[in-house]
From TrEMBL, chain A:
Residues 266-1014 form the Integrator complex subunit 5 C-terminal domain. Residues 573-593 are annotated as: Disordered. It comes from the Eukaryota. GO terms for cellular component: integrator complex. Pfam families: INTS5_C, INTS5_N. Residues 26-242 form the Integrator complex subunit 5 N-terminal domain. InterPro entries: ARM-type_fold, INTS5, INTS5_C, INTS5_N. GO terms for biological process: regulation of RNA splicing; snRNA 3'-end processing. This is Integrator complex subunit 5.
Length: 1023, 475
């Protein structure tokens, strides 16, 4: 049994024999003596640095009581290594001798082994017994790092403390300092579990003592333990902030000097540390700061045991909680980086319950401290690089009264909060006003830097708000109580601060977003306040609006709104102009008039940019555009290209309006009015624009897409085919298509027989085509509108604009009431009609050939007649041409075509009465009347249309044949007309044409034959 | 004295400290030689010099005291060690040690304790026996709170800071047994199992078991060397570490739940560690019981049997009350086996202590003390005690009974020792069997007869002889 017991004890003995602690007490005693004296006790020689360090390491392993002395001794070893390291770097930099470099290298190599051994021992100890070694080694390492950083900061090899990365690179390349850093990191990692405060406190104290040379240590440690360093640094800073006399004003006043000297370095160190970490760990810093703010307001946890480590200690201290908000404000004041990190999201935490708690906290503060805090908050808001827009929204939302009903004699907490935010907002505006106008005041709690007035200060709050102009304008235009006043004032400050570009943007946004005249008045007010300090605002604003339109950032509603607002701004001047003649205008009216005139000029300068909007797909936008353009004047220096583009857009819009008018008469009518006004202005601008407008109006009226507006018939597919064949040379129809269509049939285009397509052999006559008839009233209305526009355009002469054109509708047949039509304008219409109706230019001369000669142009004549059949508007247009004498001369080819086809019709007609051909009868009467109006026929001949309804077809033919003979004998030439200045018209003297008696002989014959029914008309035909 | 002080103020801290030591040596040595009797108290001026120039407590507000660096402090410690090593007269050493480190109740005591800790720690490393002997006396005379602090410093140095440094501490057992005895007492006062930090480190436990197993008399060293009629100062450490060690053995199973949680978290390894701890505590318990038996012999030799208090009843009562509170608190957390183990150990200790005269306590009082403890069979046996005899026979029975037991007690333990070791290794609950030899002397019950029915166990065959012998006078 005893042997078994001894066997059990034997392994322990063997285990002990293998441990390195096999020094005898005597040997340890000698080691201690050697360490103290630096002399080897057995050989009596002096220990080298390396041997002395190794002796220290042995004591560190074996004699616990020597640990502090050993660490103290090792400070010297590390210092010597660093000195050699830097000296070696400097020697290399200076290209020193090889021997010196070799010596330094040997020295560093020797000590490096020692340092590695020390590091290994300490690392092992920290790993095995963290609670025992970590506090000791961490304080030793941090203090030594601080000393080394400061001591060697002046060396040539050491970079300047401002270049943190270079400093970090240098020190981390040195084995000694890298070893210390790793030791400290290991200690900090170990101590996180139970008392991180002590570790971070040492770091902070060393940072205060050795900053800025020590910053690289903080940066490195912060990168390794960002969360812990951030939270502990903030907690330690808060405690220090409270300890340095924040608690009472009396204490502050008593120890002002001491507090200032001792307070700033600590919080400055906190700011420096967090500043270094912000480049990579801004999110962590933000979370910690916001969590700190939240915890300071939340109820402390109940029944939670007090942690001895103090990790969460500050949350349980009422005093520290109360000091948190001032501490955070102070931090933000000292560090723009921290201010930027927090201000972005801080407003999200400011919910009503949080605000109530804040108010409860601050009620206990003395008034002076509260005022200082408010001033500091205002300063911070103005200096916040980001999040300013959200802060502003929060303040405005909270400060806006929610209801006009008085809540009662006792104000509720919400009222207090609202009043506080109101006051804060007022202070902010005042502060910004001072900053913007660069008038620092003696009472300013935070005096500005001493920059010269020539260089404006940068205000981060306003810098950020410049990107939120649209939102600010939208909020301002809501016209809420007091809110829009604040925001309007802020817009003024922002515009003055930002310069013309910001002011332009603000005005542009107001013009874009205002929904009614009341809201639009804000733009006038803003312009009033800004025009004194900024010039050229409105041209820039309109240019900005144009740019906005080009980028298509606005939706349809916004685009229409913008155009309407601009039009309203322009119209206000005209109204004032009308009223200004007889009455005295007020100051506001004068200002508005001034703005209106400038807007008008600016819009005119950008007219070519607005005119494409006339053709916008949305009716609201196009209507607003035509309204704006109708109020504006065309610039004097408008280029022909721009002018033609505007004319084309305006004419296209006119036809769109006519179609819209059919759908909604009320709105369409208003829009048509704007369009007519615009076209009149364009026609009155110059002869070029007049010609362009008239030409495009004619072409538009004859366009297939618009024929139905004026009673035009829908085309028959068969007719279309025939027409297509006839128009091959003009339309460029593919011959291949034609050949495919008819197979082996040969196209006899131009052949006289191909025109008469009466039907299909074996199937009888072609069935008659029944077209869709549009609403007669609508057609009549559109016709009247078109004629009115054309008359207006023809009445205006280039270079002689009229103030306002009359909008009266005149009957086309009542020539006496028509205003005088410009001959050149009528000529434009005539030429355009000929170009659009006559398919070819052959035989287009003005003179009339013999009637038999018309056989050669029968196909063309029939085509022209069909055009008139499909487009009744042509009759009215010709009438306008006739009114503008001598323009009808240029329509000879059209007149001949119609007369020729009518002669053929009446000759071949077998009807007993002409009333059986109503279209032909009407056309015959109209044609003769028109030629009479155009003074191509003498009155005695033009009056024959009155007897046509009473004659037989043959008799009508005889009379029309007489007309042809007269035209052949008296060709219509413009030269035959004479201008009468008093009436503004051209007249033709028929007496110079010779005797007309021989041309009226057939008339008399017909009259004699029908004397019983036409006797009362004989006087109309007396020569 | 003023002249000396002014001269010292002009010197560097280390030189000044040396001069103070020299001054102490000269003055105190002379005083001892001149007076025939015990020396009088230290002069106040001497104490002030020591405090100002060795412990750097400034006496003048206007003068900032110079502090030594850590290396200089180490030099001073080395000088003190050398001085005590070279001083041949024990009386002078004691006086000077007392002059340096006797607590004065002022703010210098903190510096005193710091330097004392370093000095003793260093002396352990380099095995300075004179200092260790002086420290042992210091531990004997100083309030337990300060003793605990010194123990804490030493435990941190040798059990926590430096790995494997415990072997250095282990070696001083042969050099200074008195210091080790006092250190054990202080260490048991330091570690009370209240938290993880205040649980004895495994290395320390192993070392103590080794010390006591090697030389059980170590635990009685202070007791034996103390004057018989001397009364302990109020608040000082106990006269022996027996009660402290007993507290450890009883409380260890109740603290097992923390270790078990750790085992669950870390896996099987910690489970094995727990088993190793249990084995160590079992060995420690056995050693304590053996020391009680040795104590009986000593008391008998001094003719102080049942007259001298070794385990104060008040301390035992406090332990029992604490165990009761712990059992009640930890019942939901622990297995019943752990509680039973703790109570078994308590019962065994109480039985042996009362039998050997270490604990003077009537059974009626014991029953009252243990009334709130959970049920335990062995404890019930201990509390019930022997059968009450008729009055005419009680007086002649007792004197006859005890003399007969004493001569035969050591011999039965010898053959049982290996048996108990063997049984203790695999199954710690079987330590209950270690108490069986004591039953025949005090508790003749039928269960003993039941044990005789297990013929397979050869050690039990020995019991009939023992059983027959003590019962012969009764029958």
């Amino acid at each position: 049994m005893s042997g078994m017991f001894e066997g059990n004890a034997l392994p322990g003995i063997q285990t002990h024999s293998h441990t390195p602690n096999n020094y005898s007490p005597q040997e340890l005693s000698l080691e201690i003596k050697a360490f103290i004296s630096g002399v080897d006790q057995t050989q009596g020689r002096k220990l080298s640095v390396r041997d002395h360090a190794r002796c220290a390491i042995r004591l560190l392993r074996t004699v616990p009581a020597c640990r502090e002395a050993v660490l103290e001794h090792l400070r010297g070893v590390y210092d010597e290594y660093v000195a050699s390291f830097l000296q070696d770097l400097e020697a290399e930099g200076e290209n020193g001798g090889n021997s010196a470099s070799g010596g330094a290298s040997v020295s560093i190599s020797n000590l490096e082994d020692v340092i590695k051994e020390v590091h290994a021992v300490l690392s092992e100890f920290i790993k095995l017994s963290p609670k025992a070694w970590a506090p000791l080694v961490s304080s030793w390492a941090v203090d030594l790092l601080g000393q080394l950083s400061s001591k060697h900061a002046g060396r040539r090899a050491a970079p300047h403390s401002s270049s943190l990365n270079e400093l970090l690179q240098l020190w981390m390349s040195c084995a000694a300092t890298r070893s210390l850093m790793e030791c400290y990191s290991q200690c900090l990692a170990a101590m996180l579990a139970w008392c991180p405060d002590a570790c971070v406190d040492a770091l902070l104290d060393t940072s205060v003592q050795h900053s800025p040379h020590f910053d690289w240590v903080v940066a490195h440690i912060g990168s390794a333990f960002p969360g812990t360093i951030i939270s502990r640094v903030l907690a330690c800073g808060l405690k220090d902030f409270y300890a340095h006399g924040y608690s009472s004003a009396e204490k502050i006043s008593q120890q002002q000097a001491i507090d200032k000297s001792s307070r700033v370095p600590k919080i400055g160190s906190v700011v420096g540390i967090l500043g270094h970490l912000a480049s990579r760990h801004s999110d962590s810093i933000k979370k910690e700061l916001l969590r700190m703010f939240q915890d300071s307001l939340s109820v402390p946890p109940q029944n939670v045991p007090q942690l001895t480590s103090g990790a969460g200690g500050w949350e349980n201290s009422p005093h520290l909680r109360r000091a948190t908000v001032p501490f955070l404000l102070q931090l933000a004041a000292l560090s723009p980086t921290l201010l930027g990190a927090v201000s972005t999201e801080l407003v999200e935490f400011l919910r009503p319950p949080v605000l109530i708690q804040l108010q409860a906290q601050f009620q206990a503060l003395p008034r002076e401290e509260l005022e200082n805090m408010l001033g500091l908050a205002v300063h911070l808001i103005s200096q916040s690089p980001s999040g300013g827009a959200r802060v502003l929204k929060f303040l405005a939302d909270t400060a806006t009264p929610s209801s006009v009903i008085i809540s009662g004699p006792t104000p509720s907490p919400h009222d207090g909060i609202r009043e506080a935010c109101d006051r804060l907002l007022q202070m902010l505006l005042l502060h910004l006003h001072k900053l913007v106008h660069n008038r620092p005041d003696g009472d300013e709690p935070f005096p500005q830097s001493s920059t010269s007035p020539a260089m404006p200060q940068v205000i981060p709050f306003l810098e950020e708000l410049q990107a939120h102009i649209a939102d600010l304008c939208a909020e301002t235009l809501r016209l809420e109580r007091k809110r829009h006043l604040w925001l309007h004032q802020l817009l003024c400050l922002l515009s003055v601060y930002g310069g013309p570009s910001i002011a332009t943007e603000a005005l542009c946004q107001l013009f874009t977003q205002a929904r009614n005249p009341e809201e639009l008045a804000l733009a006038s007010q803003l312009y009033t306040q800004l025009s004194t300090s900024l010039s050229g605002l409105l041209p820039s604003t309109v240019a900005r609006c144009v740019a906005q339109i080009h980028t298509q950032t606005l939706d349809i509603k916004e685009l229409a709104q913008l155009l309407n607002n601009l039009a309203t701004a322009v119209q206000s001047q005209e109204e004032d102009g009308k009223n200004g003649g007889g009455t005295t205008t007020t100051t506001g009216s004068l200002t508005q008039s001034s703005m209106a005139s400038e807007v008008r000029v600016a819009v005119s300068s950008n007219l070519q940019d607005f005119c494409p909007l006339l053709l916008h797909g949305d009716s609201g936008v196009s209507k607003a555009a035509v309204r704006l353009l109708s109020c504006s004047q065309i610039p004097r220096a408008c280029s022909p290209a721009h002018l033609l583009r505007i004319c084309r857009a305006a004419v296209s819009h006119f036809f769109v309006c006519l179609r819209q008018q059919g759908k909604s008469p009320q709105a369409g009518q208003e829009e048509v009015g704007y369009s007519r006004r615009l076209l009149s202005r364009l026609a009155a601008y110059s002869s070029l624009s007049q010609k362009a407008v008239l030409q495009q109006l004619v072409e538009g009226a004859l366009h297939k897409g618009n024929q139905d507006l004026f009673g035009g018939l829908q085309e028959n597919p068969s007719d279309d085919t025939t027409q297509a064949q006839n128009l091959v040379p003009d339309l460029g129809i593919s011959l291949l298509d034609v050949n495919r269509k008819f197979g082996t049939s040969v196209n006899f285009s131009g052949n006289v027989w191909s025109v008469f397509h009466a039907g299909i052999i074996g199937k009888g006559l072609k069935p008659p085509y029944t077209p869709l008839h549009p609403d007669p009233d609508r057609v009549s209305q559109n016709m009247q509108t078109l004629l009115a526009v054309m008359v207006q355009c023809c009445s205006s002469s280039g270079g002689n604009p009229t103030g306002s054109a009359g909008s009266t509708c005149s009957e086309p047949n009542v020539s006496d009431k028509l205003p005088p039509i410009n001959a050149e304008a009528a000529k434009v219409i005539a030429v355009t009609l000929v170009e659009n109706i006559c398919p070819d230019v052959a035989n287009g001369e003005l003179s009339w050939p013999p009637e038999e000669h018309s056989k050669t142009t029968v196909e063309r004549d029939i085509h022209i007649r069909r055009c008139f059949e499909k487009n009744p508007v042509l009759f009215y247009l010709l009438h306008v041409v006739a009114a503008g004498r001598p323009a009808l001369c240029y329509c000879s080819v059209i007149l001949r075509a119609l007369l020729s086809t009518l002669l053929a019709h009446w000759e071949s007609s077998r009807e007993p009465s002409v009333s059986d051909s109503p279209w032909h009868l009407q056309t015959s009467c109209w044609l003769v009347s028109c030629m009479g109006e155009g003074q191509l026929l003498p009155p005695v001949l033009s009056n024959i249309n009155e007897v046509f309804p009473h004659l037989s077809p043959f008799e009508v033919r005889l009379l029309l044949l007489g007309v042809w003979e007269y035209m052949r004998g008296n060709s219509p030439m413009p030269q035959k007309f004479t201008f009468c200045a008093d009436q503004g018209l051209f007249f033709r003297d028929f007496s110079r044409d010779g005797d007309v008696a021989r041309y009226i002989a057939p008339i008399h014959s017909v009259l004699h034959k029908n004397i019983d029914r036409l006797g009362h008309l004989c006087w109309r035909f007396q020569v | 004295m003023s002249d000396i002080r002014h001269a010292l103020l002009r010197r560097d801290p280390l030189s000044a400290a040396k001069e103070v030591l020299y001054h102490l040596d000269i003055s105190l040595g002379s005083a001892l030689q001149s007076s025939a009797g015990p020396p009088a108290g230290l002069e106040k001026s001497t104490v002030e010099l020591v405090e100002e120039f060795i412990f750097h407590v400034s006496k003048d507000r206007n003068i900032q005291s110079k502090r030594m660096s850590c290396v200089q402090e180490l030099q001073l410690l080395e000088i003190i060690c050398s001085y005590f090593q070279e001083q041949s007269k024990d009386a002078i050493r004691q006086v000077i040690f007392s002059a340096l480190f006797s607590l004065q109740g002022n703010k210098a005591d903190e510096s005193r304790m710091a330097m004392l800790g370093k000095l003793v720690s260093m002396s352990i490393a380099v095995c300075r026996v004179p200092i260790l002997e002086c420290a042992a006396i210091w531990l004997q005379r100083t309030h337990s709170a300060w003793c605990v602090r010194l123990a804490q410093v030493l435990m941190e140095d040798y059990c926590t800071l430096v790995p494997c440094a415990i072997s250095t501490l282990q070696n001083i057992c042969s050099a200074s047994p008195r210091f080790c005895c006092q250190l054990i007492t202080a260490v048991t006062a330091l570690y009370d199992f209240s938290t993880d930090e205040l649980t004895p480190p495994p290395a320390l436990l192993e070392m103590l078991v080794g010390w006591i197993t090697e030389d059980p008399r170590l635990l009685l060293l202070t007791f034996i060397n103390s004057p018989l009629n001397s009364s302990l100062p109020l608040g000082c450490l106990e006269i022996t570490p027996l009660l402290g060690l007993l507290r450890w053995c009883v409380k260890a199973p109740l603290a097992y739940h923390r270790g078990r949680k750790s085992a669950m978290t870390n896996g099987h390894g910690d489970g094995e560690k727990g088993t190793a701890y249990e084995e160590l505590y079992s060995k420690l318990h056995l050693s304590v019981l053996q020391v009680f038996l040795m104590l009986q012999v000593h008391l008998t030799e001094k003719n102080m049997f049942c007259r001298l208090t070794v385990l104060p009843v008040e301390s035992v009562a406090a332990l029992i009350e604490e165990v009761g509170r712990l059992c009640e608190k930890l019942a939901p957390l622990l297995d019943a086996s752990h509680i039973q183990l703790a109570l078994d150990r308590l019962a065994q200790a109480l039985q042996v202590a009362m039998a050997t005269g270490a604990l003077l306590c009537a059974r009626e009082d014991l029953r009252a003390l243990c009334s709130r403890l959970p049920h335990n069979n062995l404890l019930q046996l201990v509390m019930s005690g022997p059968v009450v005899q008729p009055p005419p026979h009680s007086s002649p029975f007792q004197p006859n009974m005890y003399p007969h037991i004493h001569p035969g007690r050591p011999s039965p333990l010898s053959p049982h020792s290996p048996h108990q070791s063997t049984l203790s290794s695999p199954h710690s609950p079987h330590t209950v069997l270690t108490a069986h030899p004591t039953h025949p002397a005090l508790a003749p019950h039928r269960p003993l007869t039941a044990h005789a029915t297990h013929p397979a166990l050869s050690p039990h065959a020995f019991h009939p002889a023992s059983i027959a012998f003590p019962y012969r006078p009764i029958r």
